[in-house]
Amino acid sequence: MLQTEFPFTLPMGYVDPEGNLHKEGVMRLATEPVPPPQRQRRQPGAYPVPVLRKGIRGGTQRPGGVWRYPLERLYEEVAYIAFHFHWPHEQLLALDHSERRRWVLEISKINRRLNEQSESS
């Protein structure tokens, strides 16, 4: 069964408008759409709360999750950069995705230029 309630403790607590200190609470996951009266925020100029789509939780799909970069593609990129630049494994894995992709593109440009030069010679 999907857990929808999570108890928590605020280290410093929260003082409500009446002056009461609250340290303990329960966070509840949204399991159904937010009713229209609760979608409006109280601050002037604030955006309305987005509606939670039905059917997000349950069924055969796992809730949440992050799509990760395919592991096979990561190996290809690391091998490609390592082959051309001879950088250490740790340094290559420390690169973030966009930086690693940028180096792959730059190496490809260099290879294309070299191939074009050798073909024209």
Would you give an account of this structure?
The chain has about 120 residues and is of the alpha+beta class. β1 and β2 form a beta hairpin. α1 crosses α3 (about 95-120). Among the domains are: about 5-40, no CATH class; about 70-120. The longest helix is centred in the last third of the chain and has 24 residues, at about 95-120. The mean pLDDT is about 75. Strands 1-2 form a two-stranded antiparallel ribbon. The protein has three helices and two strands. The chain starts with a strand and ends with a helix.
Concise account of the structure shown:
With 121 residues, the chain is of the alpha+beta class. The protein contains 3 helices and 2 strands.
What is the element layout, followed by pairings?
Layout: E1 5-15, E2 21-28, H1 71-85, H2 89-94, H3 97-120
Helix pairs in contact: 1-3
N-to-C span? 69 Å
Indicate the structural class: alpha+beta
Order of helices and strands: EEHHH
Low-confidence stretches: none
Strand content: 15-25%
State the assembly state of the protein chains.
single chain
**How does the overall form come out from the CA principal axes?**
elongated
Give the tags:
121 residues; alpha+beta; 3 helices
